[in-house]
Amino acid sequence: MSSERTEVQVRPGVEADLAALTDIYNHYVRETPITFDTAVFTPEERLPWLLSHPEDGPYRLMVATAADPTGTSQEILGYATSSPFRAKPAYATSVEVTVYLAPHAGGRGVGTLLYKALFEALAEEDVHRAYAGIAQPNEASTRLHGRFGFRHVGTYGEVGRKFGRYWDVAWYEKDL
Question: Cα 107 from chain centroid?
Answer without folding.
Answer: 15
